[in-house]
Design a protein that fits this description.
This protein has eleven helices and 16 strands. It is of the alpha+beta class and 402 residues long. Strand 3, helix 3 and strand 4 form a beta-alpha-beta unit. Helix 10 runs antiparallel to helix 11.
């Protein structure tokens, strides 16, 4: 018995919905003739007998193309076009103006008032087909662009939510303002330029009378630098430093960090300042790697910046970072900050600068540390004229009362 032959039925894709044309014309016969021709071309056709009804149908149906008569009572074609172009929800609509007026100045007027193309009432069926198809191609491209734009907006909103969530996590890595140990108070402010930044700072408590403090900045903005900052913050924990460095000397800490964190494949790096406070001996020691944002505001009013010209972390694994020292007395205040604070520009592009920052700090005198920190941020905001900083801004003030 012969094997039966299996006949396979070809699979057909789902037939797409036909494109829609709105015909707006106050002459029923002309409207019927054009509608019949368009239906033969495979389009879905809807009709309106005047401009006002056409606008309502355009809003309700959102057709792919509108073919519009110029001469109509109450609202003519050009007025229809102007109304559409003023409406944010309709302005991308494709409009093909149909007219018996085909003089250049009339065509120019119609285009100026919002029509996309013209079709003469005396046009052949071939021209009608070509003009309609051209309008449909444009409408299709616009719809695709709108879909892509909406998709991008949705993705951007999702990304913003993720960044906000990550920013809340980064905030948990930062120390809270308050008393660090008896006699030492810390107040901080943190203003990332985006929802998520690459600045990070913290306190390393070696013992009851020996503190480490650092502020680091990962190059770039967004998720990647924030993750890199979080990774180096793990290295800068007390137990990790004792294991990898075996010392609380700032220069030794940065020298080892330089070996542990080379440049990334994309050339990203860290700048950092690390400070140790020996409260018993009343001595401050510090080291910096490409970061100049650290100064001591002495009780006498003198401001001592502790800048050291050297490379950021990761540029040269053989770099040795040197430790500097300064004596401290009760009433001195130490500030660690990102360069985004004093490099903020005003509307004309002039930077606020270290000199104005110094003057601001001196101007607060011996007012409470929390007032100085918040007031300094407020003064930088006043200088630039708006709340959003162009770069991450971090400021940590430490008052030594012992």
């Amino acid at each position: 018995m012969p094997t039966p032959v299996k006949v396979s039925t070809p699979r057909t894709a789902e037939t797409p919905a036909p494109q829609t044309v709105l015909v707006v014309d106050d002459e029923p016969t002309a409207r019927m003739v054009l509608a019949t021709r368009l239906k033969r071309l495979g389009y879905r056709v809807i009709e309106a007998g005047d401009g006002k009804a056409g606008i309502e149908m355009l809003r309700r149906e959102r057709p792919d193309l509108t073919i519009l008569d110029w001469m109509m009572p109450e609202m003519d074609g050009p007025s229809f076009c102007e109304l559409v172009r003023r409406d944010p929800e309709l302005l991308s609509s494709q409009i093909l103006m149909m007219t018996s007026h085909d003089q250049p100045e009339q065509i120019a007027e119609g285009l100026a008032r919002g029509a996309d193309d013209f079709l003469s009432k005396a046009a052949s069926k071939y021209e009608v087909t070509a003009r309609v198809q051209a309008g449909m191609r444009t409408a299709t491209l616009i719809r695709r662009l709108e879909d892509v734009t909406e998709e991008m907006r949705t993705k951007q909103e999702a990304l913003e939510r993720e960044l906000q969530s990550a920013a809340r996590y980064v905030e948990t890595l930062l120390p809270a303002s308050g008393t660090v140990v008896p006699g030492v108070q810390m107040v901080r402010a943190y203003r990332p330029s985006l929802t998520l930044g690459g600045d990070l700072f913290n306190i390393v408590q070696w013992s009851d009378d020996f503190l480490g403090l650092y502020l680091l900045d990962a190059s770039g903005h967004g998720v990647s630098p924030a993750l890199r900052s979080a990774s180096i913050s793990t290295f800068l924990r007390r137990d990790s430093l004792l294991h990898h460095v075996g010392s609380n000397d700032p220069g030794a800490v940065l020298t080892e960090a330089n070996k542990q964190f080379p440049l990334t494949e994309n050339g990203h790096y860290f700048t950092i300042v690390f400070v140790s406070l020996d409260l018993r001996c009343r001595m401050l020691s510090y080291a910096t790697a490409g970061h100049n944002g650290v100064f001591l505001h002495r009780r006498s009013g003198e401001i001592c910046w502790m800048a050291q010209p050297n490379l950021p972390l990761g540029f040269d694994s053989s770099t040795t970072y040197v430790t500097g020292e300064l004596p401290i007395i009760p009433g001195d205040r130490l500030y660690l900050l990102s360069d985004g604070l004093y490099e903020v520009p005003n509307p004309s592009g002039e930077l606020w600068g270290q000199a104005r920052l110094d003057a601001t700090i001196r101007g607060f005198g011996e007012r409470p540390l929390a007032e100085v920190v918040s007031g300094t941020i407020a003064e930088a905001v006043r200088w630039q004229g708006h709340e959003q900083f162009p770069d991450d801004v971090a400021l940590m003030g430490v008052e030594i009362a012992l």
